[in-house]
Amino acid sequence: MPKEDRSSFILQGFEPSAVRLKRKLRLILNKNLRRDKISDKNVTFSEFIFYSAIFITVTIISILSHMSQDAFNADRCIRRLLVNKLELDTVTKTHDFWQYLDRFNEELYSNIVEWKESTNNSKEQFNHQILLSNENFVLGIPRLRQIRVDDTHCQIIKDLSVRPIRCYAPYHKSKEYRDKFITVTGFQYEYTSPKITAALELLNAYGPYDTGGFIYHFRPTKDLNDKAIINLKKSAWLDLSTRAIFIELIYFNPNIELLTSINILFEFLTTGTVQVRDFFYTVPINSFFFGRKKLLGIFQILFNLFYIIFAFYYVGKIAEHRLWFIMSSFWNLYDLGLLILFTISFYFDIKFLMYISQTLKCFSIPKNDIFKELIYFIETQINRIDLQAYIAAAVLIRLLRYLPHFSNLIANLLDVFYKSIKNSLGFLFLFFLIFMSFVIFATFHYGDELYEFHTFALTSYTLIRCTLGQFEYDRAYRVSPTWTPIFYMVYVCVVFFVLLNLLVAVVNEAYVLGKQEQKQIEDDLQEEYIHGSNNEGLNAFRRSRRPLLQAAFIRQINRFLNFFLNKSIDLNDNTDVRTDDQDDEISLDEKQTIIVEKLQKTLLNDGYNKNVIEKFLQRLLLNNDNDDDDNDIFLFQMEENKTIKILYDEFKIFNNQYENYS
Question: What residues does each domain of the chain span?
Answer without folding.
Answer: 45-67+290-401, 86-284
